[in-house]
Amino acid sequence: MLTCFNTVSSSNSTPITVIQLNDFDKWLANQSIQIKQWLTTTQFCAKSGAFCLLPDPSGKLSLVICCIADADDLWGVGALPFALPEGDYLLDIPEINYSRFAIAWGLGAYQFTLYKKPSRPPANLVLPATCQLAEINNLVSSIYYVRDWINTPTDNMGPSEFAAEAVKIGKEFGAKVKQIVGDDLLLQNYAAIHAVGRASDDAPRLIDIRWGDKKHPKLTLVGKGVCFDTGGLDIKPSSYMALMKKDMGGAAHTLGLARMIMQAQLPIQLRVLMPVVENAIAGNAYRPGDVIRSRKGLTIEIGNTDAEGRVVLADALAEAVSDKPDLLIDIATLTGAARVALGTELPAMFANNDDIANAAIHHAQRQQDPVWRLPLFSLYRDMLNSTIADINNDSASSYGGAIAAALFLKEFVPDDIPWLHFDLMAWNLKARPGRPQGGEAMGLRALFSYLKAWAIR
Questions:
Q1: Beta bridge partners of residue 178, listed in sequence order
Q2: Which of 112, 231, 252, 431 could connect to 437 by a Cys-Cys bridge, CB 3.0–4.6 Å?
Q3: For the residues of 141-205, what is the DSSP string, one character each?
Q4: How do 269-279 and 218-223 pair as beta strands?
Q5: Residues 6+ apart with CB under 8 A from 431
Q6: Is 171 found in the same domain as 298?
Q7: Mind listing the pLDDT tens digit for each residue in 240-274?
Q8: Which residues of 314-350 are buried (b: 16+ CB within 10 A; e: fewer)?
Q9: CA proximity to 106, closest of 138, 62, 72, 130
Q10: In terms of domains, do 151 and 77 share one?
Q11: Catalytic annotation present for 310
């Protein structure tokens, strides 16, 4: 059980009355003169996330009120764990919504404490026995892992350290974990992964996790694991490099999603492939103009060493489709173009199958974990043409970059394998209720919800 939750209510547990904005006037009309006067004195303004501490006649805290926009306003309580005084609290809310709001509470209670002691612990939420305790803990703790991995700088989360985390997660759930490391990548035909990561003193690798029963539907997850991205010889300016510890966010997402699946024992035959590298600069760094032969056999001209994510994903996807999975999902912090198109808080999704795309969007809306579909617009494929190789990793145009990157990946995924590709930020530039500044799991609750339904379809 996470430290922000408690399963035992006591006389010291302070109730929190959660009020929908449309019901606030009606609620207020039924309150005592003392409460009305207190709200007037404190100049309380009813809006989503607004809260007020109400004292009893002796001056002790007796009640908290919190306003939410409507019954589905998941994040209305997300700021409370650190806004309220320490102690135990119990939400006054219908049981059908308690688990959803508990997840928001848990995500709002997150702190990254590897290097800095927290100023205070979060307030505790009492979870009644009717809550989905196992699922709440699974979702929240898995997202904590994802946030921690992304927040950790590369000196403590390089390729070998991230691999150790994958081994630890695999061991926890009895999964088989295999690594192909360094020059063994060349021997086993993963030249693209090797080329991107060979300049680092922390060897590139492909992490391969397998779990589940072979009689269940086959799901393969692929995650971009660039633990730091200098841009390579096409070096980034310092302002663009500052957040590049998060460029392994795709791998963090896939490992976190795998943990959710294994913890919940979903009836899925799971495979996770994560090419994990550091795009560093040294005498043996791969160069603009180099041509790399990918695992699929397609030759890739390197138009830009800073478009490295799609290069490592090419080999991982080629391996992923060799198993002919029933569903293939890749997750990557792939392009700045997707952020220009949709902003930093809305992941871009591409799909080669309308049914799975529509289902994923449906679950994203239900979970208030939004994604937005962009098209695999085939006419833009010409932007990746090369005069000396099968494909260039860099678009010839400054427009449509997210689509061009997705079309590059599509070259390595046959049309008969249902495929979802997510291009996301994996980082909150600013704090919002339930979503602190820093590393963030985006779309994972939506995907987990979708996969629960997909596994038993």
A1: 208
A2: 431
A3: HHHHHHHHHHHS-TTTSSHHHHHHHHHHHHHHTT-EEEEEETTHHHHTT-HHHHHHHTTSSS--E
A4: parallel
A5: 437
A6: yes
A7: 999 999 999 999 999 999 999 999 999 999 999 99
A8: bbbbbbbbeeebbbbbbbbbbbebbbebbebbbbbbb
A9: 138
A10: no
A11: yes
Question: Pick from 17, 100, 12, 55: which is nearest to 434 by CA?
Answer: 100
- Per the CB < 8 A criterion, the answer to whether 356 and 431 are in contact is no
pTM over 0.90: yes
In angstroms, the CA 79 to CA 76 distance is 8
pLDDT tens-digit map of 121-134: 999 999 988 889 99
Q: Is 207 in the same domain as 356? A: yes
Note whether 164 and 44 are same-domain residues.
Answer: no
**10-residue mean pLDDT series, the chain (457 residues):** 82 92 96 94 94 92 95 93 96 85 96 94 93 94 98 98 98 98 98 98 98 98 98 97 98 98 98 98 98 98 98 98 98 98 98 98 97 98 98 95 98 98 98 97 98 94
Given 210, 218, 236, 373, the catalytic residue: 236
End position of a domain, from candidates 74, 98, 131: 131
The last residue of a domain, from among 85, 115, 131: 131
CA atoms of 374 and 92, how far apart (whole Å): 40
Task: Return the structure tokens found at 349.
Answer: 């999704």
The H or E element containing residue 377 is none
Q: Which two tokens stand for residue 121?
A: 């612990």
Whether 271 is catalytic is: no
CATH of the domain at 23: 3.40.220.10
**Local structure of 452: helix, strand or coil:** helix
- Please name every residue paired with 211 in a beta bridge, in sequence order, or none if there are none: 270
User: Range of 62's domain?
Assistant: 5-131
Distance CA(58)–CA(262), nearest Å, equals 50
What DSSP assignment string belongs to 332-372? E---HHHHHHH-SSS-EEEES-HHHHHHHHHHHHHTT---E
Contact (Cβ atoms closer than 8 angstroms) between residue 252 and residue 223: yes
Task: Exactly one of 147, 205, 271, 310 is catalytic; name it.
Answer: 310
